[in-house]
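If you are new to this repository, start here. Below is one unmodified record pulled from the training split, so you can see the exact layout before writing a loader.
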Amino acid sequence: MDNTPFTAEEKTYVLSGLNEIKQYLLTAHKLDPALVEGHIKYLVESSDRLGRKDWKNLLLATIVSVVMSGALPSESVREVFMFIGTVLSRILKTQLLLI
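And here is the target side for that same chain:
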């Protein structure tokens, strides 16, 4: 994966995927809305200034932070990462090794 900026079309997919992840975290795992929305907003803003490789690394670090802050049980953590990996592999067209 190179570190080029997202195209306008890719950015649309990224934003859609982040919204899907946000809804999943809020509804399926009942995480704190302020925590989730703040981190998702940061990821959206970062997608404008970072290349795709740097953004993917930031995304992984951010999701780990959200999951740890939410104090989810280990089975839920695995489920969250599987869901996020599925959504983002569609967006970034690459497999994310989250597990």
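Two things worth knowing about this chain: The chain has four helices and no strands. Confidence is low (pLDDT under 50) at residues 95-99.
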